[in-house]
Design a protein that fits this description.
By secondary structure, the chain is α+β, with helices and mostly antiparallel strands. About 40% of the residues lie in helices and about 15% in strands. Strands 1, 5, 6, 7, 8 and 9 form a six-stranded mixed beta sheet that branches. Strands 2-3-4 form a three-stranded antiparallel beta sheet, with no helix packed on it. Strand 3 and strand 4 form a beta hairpin. The chain is flat and about 80 Å long.
């Protein structure tokens, strides 16, 4: 393995070289626990080292680095949250993939969630549903009748809702069994047991369709041009205009500062927005997109629209990260804006051909 190349960051951001090399050696030889590996990767990345360089020097792929870094941060929350020694000992040796999914939970929820996962032997395949159930439960304005704030009851409530939506008795029984497994209080268990004799089906309200739109024509591909100002102008004003370089696939442009612009077609929904902001992401962060190949998308939101309605998706603060959610009932969480349109890039099969009009004419 090769050593990491010297980083181009300023001197005050440079890590202690000897410490960095020692951390690389421990990562390369897999010394210590995964929690220590995560802390080492976090130190190196925070000091300015590229995840790809760390991978080449240690064998830890960038996606694995991210998992153990975040997982180790969640593990630290367990110690602060009063998790039992048995749980801390278990997760200090394994389960980075489980703790990683608890990143979306508040600091005070993580310890109890880890206790729940340990007690019921929740694995990486099931933990996403458990974490999402706890998070969604925490956003309810009032506790549902019969269910407590314990994470076990949160999961039980989610499965209770799912069971009531199923007319197939086999599926219904499967959710009832899962709810009984996780229920923490007797009252929650009684609510779920009632479904064994009450076969009423409560139809599931379908989530609204996501406002995807694909750019299809050249006329829709706007070009952003900087403005020097209004005449009369002196030459310095013209010289001060930054050079614009477009970034594919949405022709986003940046200037010398931290800001950037991106072109959006003049659709009515965009023109009507009072405070539009664009967030770049991948299509697979949204529901019902798992089977499709992830692709870059622009998520346009209107920050002025912060009043809940059950026909829209909203952007929210999910434990320090922006997240996009649909809420069937009014949530007890601040809404940061409504999603107005999600733009997919135009399909271009040959970038060079479209530049030559004579080839298109033929």
């Amino acid at each position: 393995m090769t050593d990491l190349p010297p980083n181009s960051q300023s001197t005050e951001n440079q890590p202690n070289r000897e410490l960095a090399e020692e951390l690389l050696r421990k990562l390369r030889q897999k010394e210590g626990s995964w929690v220590e590996w995560g802390q080492a990767c976090a130190y190196l990345q925070k000091s300015g080292y590229n995840p790809q360089d760390i991978f080449e020097a240690t064998g830890f792929e960038p996606i694995q680095q991210n998992q153990i870094i975040v997982g180790s941060q969640v593990y630290n929350s367990l110690e602060k949250g009063g998790a039992s020694e048995e749980v801390k000992s278990h997760y200090s040796q394994r389960g980075s993939d489980v703790l990683y999914e608890f990143r979306m939970l508040a600091q005070e929820e993580r310890a109890s969630a880890a206790e729940l996962a340990f007690k019921h032997k929740v694995d990486a395949d099931e933990v996403k549903e458990v974490a999402r159930a706890i998070k969604d439960f925490s956003r309810l304005r009032n506790l549902p009748e019969g269910f407590s704030a314990h994470p076990g009851d949160a999961v039980a409530y989610q499965t209770w809702k799912q069971a009531r939506q199923k007319s197939d008795l086999q599926l219904r029984s499967r959710f009832i069994a899962k709810g009984l497994k996780f229920a923490h209080t007797d009252s929650a268990r009684q609510k779920i047991e009632q479904l064994l004799t009450d076969f009423t089906v409560v139809p599931q309200r379908p989530a609204p369709l996501l406002p995807f739109y694909r750019l299809e024509s050249e006329a829709e591909m706007s070009r952003v041009v900087p403005v020097a100002g209004e005449l009369p102008l002196n030459p310095d004003a013209l010289r001060a205009v930054p050079i614009v370089e477009e970034t594919e696939p949405f022709n986003m442009v940046k200037f010398s500062g931290e800001g950037a612009w991106v072109p959006l077609p003049g659709w009515q929904v965009v023109l009507n927005a009072e405070d539009p902001v664009v967030i770049l992401g991948k299509s697979d962060i949204f529901p019902n997109q798992e089977g499709n190949k992830p692709q870059p998308v622009m998520i346009a939101i209107d920050r002025s629209q912060r009043k809940w309605d059950n026909g829209s998706y909203f952007v929210v603060d999910n434990s320090g990260e922006l997240d996009f959610q649909w809420f069937e009932t009014e949530p007890d969480v601040d809404l940061l804006g409504r999603v107005i349109v999600i733009v997919k890039p135009k399909r271009i099969f040959d970038d060079e051909i479209i530049k030559d009009s004579w080839q298109i004419d033929e």
